Amino acid sequence: MAIRQRAIQAEDKQERQQAILDAAARLLARSPERIANVAEVADEAGLAKGTVYLYFPSKEELLLAVHERNIDGFFRALIDRLADTTPVTVGDVLALTHKHIVAPPLFLPLAARCFGMMGQSVPVEAALAFKQRMGERLSAAGAGLERHFEELAPGQGVALLRHSYALIIGLWQMSPAAQASSRAPTQTWREARVAMISSCTEGVEPNQAATSVAARSASLLRASVRTASNCRASGCWGVSSAVSGWRARARPV
Question: 46 is in which domain, residue-wise?
Fold first, then answer.
């Protein structure tokens, strides 16, 4: 292990923070069944244990930071696309969702784990700060969706993002993939994700599997936009999701 010199400049500190997150992500990918302790992360990053604590007071906050970096990549890409003057389609949103949320092997299992930590092992201050930053991302992306999809009334862009994300995580937690990843420490999350896709395409020819998943996802998102449109016309607000389908939540404007 090579112990690096202390970072002084802001750029050096940012680089060191990213190096710590990279190290934590590598350890998580190698051993998804457990959370590496701070000493292990420090050794992987080539840093002193105390240095890691300067950036992240606990392993739970470090894990949450890895997750936030992942989700920030999705929101940055989505907000940039929505800022474009060219029309945005449901397919565009789905493509970004697949690239940043579904395809990366760590995203869904880590997101599900962080959901469970938020009200337990993550300090209240850190959890609130995380939620505030997420709120800012949601507001920016939601406003962009409302500009491109006129069916969405003010506030429904954020609601659509929140409920869609919650549904994705919920389905992951109920999938055979999530159960397999928790039962089999030697199974990688990439294999678990493949198992989840397979469970969604049972009975479908292999060369049609990807098309089937994409089609079902597109159908769900289009249905949510139509529901928002109907809800707006009938004088209610918001869109909530359930496993049985999308439903309007009666709430007067």
Answer: 1-56
